[in-house]
Amino acid sequence: MRRRLSISEVVRRVLNNHPSLLDCIKLGVVNYSSLARVIVDEVKELGNFNEVSVNAVKMGIVRFSESLKSKKLIEDTIKELISRSTVELQTDLKLITLRRETLITKLNELMHILMRARFFQLTQGTKTFTLVVSEDVCNDVLRLFDKDVIEDVINDQSAIILISPKEIISVPGVISYITSLLSWYGVNITQIISCYIDTILVLNRSDALKAYSLIEELILQLRRVRT
């Protein structure tokens, strides 16, 4: 039989669904009573409770805010790591998605083409491969495959490459921190690729300069705070 969740557990789940509220709680700028009144109906619905008092929800928020103090230390580590990162921009790219079995049979020929490319990234999914490739070899890649095995082609893409210290491998939340910033400013990410210390964000060319500027300014701002 499934265990019934407590009010505090449901409050935690509700707050975790609202990243902006988490940020405000971490900063200590939230009135707990007001927040409890805002989310009490959502807590009642999610927990399938007959009745939930605002005071009970408020106590759940207080307990949850205490647990966020340790996460503040992790956030400081994330900021310090980002401040030691650099960012690069690659433009004039295409995203080509191919059926997995077809690419494997022509892998050697494909690699000969890709070795001439200004930029490429190859990512394997469960049934497909996705290739991010620069325009200089794109036509050669497309000629290598029949049209019926090409699942999708997305034009006018760019790639922002965040090059970080080695610690990024073991520090949770770095990519989330960056993508939350871009999401806040309405930047859509087509694909995210992680390659050792490189985090590659593929996005539409129309968003590329805005995204690059946001990340560069974040890095510079965090460096100023450190000095």
Summarize the entry for a quick read.
With 227 residues, the protein is α+β, with helices and mostly antiparallel strands.
Give the topology.
Elements: H1 7-16, H2 19-27, H3 32-47, H4 54-83, E1 86-99, H5 100-105, H6 107-114, E2 120-124, E3 128-134, H7 135-143, E4 150-163, H8 174-184, E5 189-195, E6 198-204, H9 205-226
Helix pairs in contact: 1-3, 1-4, 3-4, 4-9
What would your notes on this structure say?
- The protein starts with 6 loop residues before the first helix and ends with a helix.
- The chain contains nine helices and six strands, in the order ααααβααββαβαββα.
- It folds into two domains: 7-75, no CATH class; 84-226, VC0802-like, CATH 3.30.2130.10.
- The relative contact order is 0.12.
- With 227 residues, the chain is of the alpha+beta class.
- Helix 3 (32-47) packs across helix 4 (54-83) and helix 4 crosses helix 9.
- A six-stranded antiparallel β-sheet has the order 2-3-1-4-6-5.
- It has helices at 7-16, 19-27, 32-47, 54-83, 100-105, 107-114, 135-143, 174-184, 205-226; strands at 86-99, 120-124, 128-134, 150-163, 189-195, 198-204.
- The model has no long low-confidence stretch (mean pLDDT 92).
- The longest helix has 30 residues, at 54-83.
- It is elongated, with a radius of gyration of 23 Å.
